Amino acid sequence: MRIRIIGLPLLFVSGLVQAQTTGTTSPDEQIKDAVPLPFGHCFSHVPLRTEGQTDPNAPITVTADVLNATKDGKVLYRGDVEVLQGERRFHSDYMELEQQSRDVLAKGNIRLTDGTITVESDTTLTGNLTTKDTELDQARYQLHGDPGRGHARKVTLAGERAEVDLKEASYTTCPPGEEAWQLKASTVSVEQDEVFGEAWNAVLWLGDVPVFYFPYIKFPVKDERQSGFLYPSFDISSSNGADIRLPYYWNIAPNYDATITPRYIEKRGAMAQLEFRYMPTEGHNGVLYGEYLHEDKKLANDPALAGEEWRDDARWLFSWQHSARFDAAGHWRGNIDYTQVAGWDYAYLDDFDPPVGTLVDNQLLQSFQGGYYDRHWQLTTEIRDYQILKPELDTQPFQLMPALVLNSYRGLGDFDIALDSELARFENSDEQAYQATRFHIEPRLIYSLIDQPGLQLKADVGAYYTHYEQDIPTALAPYYLNQWGFDTNTLDTSVDRLLPRMRINGGLVFDRQARWFEQDFTQTLEPQFQYLYVPYENQDNIGLYDSTTMRQDYYSLFSDRRFAGLDRISDANQLTAGFTSRIYDDSGTERLRLALAQTFNFTAPRVKLYPGEQLDKTKQSFLTFEGDLNLDNSWFIHGEAQHDTRNNQLAAGNITLEYNEQGKLAQLGFRHLNEAYFSDSISNELNQVGGTLFWPVAPQWGLIGAYYRDIELHRNIDTLIGLRYDSCCWAVSLVWEQWQKEDKLFNPTSTTQETSIGLRFELKGFSSLGTGSEFEPGTELLPYYRPFNLNN
């Protein structure tokens, strides 16, 4: 039979759910095991979460085996009583409603759910439809889509105040019967309008052993922010000793907050850290971050620094990151990336590992930029400086003060028209360095001679015009003469450079069907060529402000530049030829890619990066190869090689082999650089080998390891080994790592060994406590990455 009533049990479910389960997610999203568990029972008891919303005014349907009405005004429901309202469901063996007082009593096999939580009791539920107060004895609860569950001797819902109180309550994420940990409290109180719940006399139990007592704690019940202490963190390393942080989160306003972190470093002293986040208006947000250590005990007490004035100085860092969008369409945008440390403090980032700072070749970026960005053109400006963090550098980097850049690309009939231009001012803090104002404009006209499926041919003509006004000091710093060959007679105050440019490139795509290993494949052959012509002009009279030689690889051979930056435009009369071959399986997955290319110079390039450079007169580039293989979605290989055909030797190369499947990862790599390949940056051949491992070694046990070694220097670069035990609801890991750390303060040309040990204990769904970093295959110096370039 069916009748309509106002259902107090459903009001109870609604109140309990809103108070305790806001923001829960699926088990896979909530808990990510570092070591895949060999059994599936961890979440077998967890119901799926359904997000359906129920209208509180929606009709309520009640069904029962027997319905009776008594003379004293009671309505009695017996046998398989079920109350439904949308996603909300209530079940019991017996329920009675006192129509005058509007009291409700339910008994036996009580079960309440709304798709986000299930509450059960084998005893009684009492309540009142007018006050909406409800009590449930001996209750058990299970979150949906989340392993969180527990019980309470009594659950009380104060309907008018929308408050839930639990007496003698517990919480755990462990499966039933495997309670490795529980949090038990004498009283738990949750108000629906509050962000945090409260618990009194809470005890953390590991098995049957109480390990920590909390007289009073607050815990989040909504995905909202509230001020309070965050979990502390601990680290131990050979250079710093014990490192303890206790962050306090300050929720200043909905669009402002701060994290204040007292930090104690055993060998160095007390440090203060402050992070302030702001979002004053829509489209604007940023972070101000600072660290301050009044005195570094390790430096102050080192007798080797007795004569250094800065050894007693404070060590500090300031950083400002800001992103701005000034209009709804996002055309006007700006960005700030600024980080600074004390001028003498080259080792700050290595010693304290701050979470901010953009490093470019041991230099801290300090940049302010903004502009207008449109589909066809962009106008940007930037002020940029760098702080050197390597004391042996003899020159200061040039500052952009500022640069104004205008770029445009637009189609016009069968033609594409491109324009790149820049006006830049380069300054230097060294009084013996040259400085300059540079104007550059580069118009281009691109015409598709042939544009058909499988066949493309383009002509690209243009010109480079650059004007320099250089400020040349009376005497240049010795570095410019000794290292680069510049002198005051070499450089000109005013320079104009005009160079025409012609580029023709094209390619073909052939494909054929093939069958190998009883599978169907498609193989392509993609020949590609480029002819480039730029006449020669001696540019030794121009200083170097932002230019360097580009790294040579397969893609750079098809570029129109030999140098990055605009201070050098290389002459070229060359033909680059290459091909790519790909193999796709019948699902369209790219399994193999092989690419080979070489540049042939009809005239050897004559433009030098700096006057003292000795040019290679060869008329051909290295023969360059790249390849990638995806064998079966588990095995991957990537390789690159540059072969010096004139001397018949390998100039540079690297190869990576990886196995990656179902939580198992193994990667091996080797890289080689010949002494002649980067003669300006290395003095010996570079041969390095290494690998990383992330592997389950037994049920619930996982191993990580990494080892990188410099074969030429006969020393280890970075070594890591770690072990982790993973259960359904808790994990423990131990990680040891040793790496080479640059000694930037004491001896910049040497390195010292840094060692760290990390022990981390995790209660899944509750907290993580311990030392060291997360259980990941990357190392301090070499983070894990995948170099594979396949379209899958």
Automatic annotation (TrEMBL):
Cellular location(s): Cell outer membrane
GO cellular component, one term: cell outer membrane
Coiled coil: none
Any single GO BP term: lipopolysaccharide transport
Membrane-crossing residue ranges in chain numbering: none
Residue span(s) of domain LptD C-terminal: 314-701
Record InterPro entries: LipoPS_assembly_LptD, LptD, LptD_C, OstA-like_N
Signal sequence bounds: 1-19
Pfam family membership, one: LptD_N
Swiss-Prot/TrEMBL keywords: Cell outer membrane, Membrane, Signal
Domain (Organic solvent tolerance-like N-terminal) ranges: 62-194
Membership in a protein family: Belongs to the LptD family.
Known role: Together with LptE, is involved in the assembly of lipopolysaccharide (LPS) at the surface of the outer membrane.
NCBIfam families per UniProt: PRK03761.1
Subunit-structure text: Component of the lipopolysaccharide transport and assembly complex. Interacts with LptE and LptA.
Name of protein: LPS-assembly protein LptD
Annotated gene: lptD
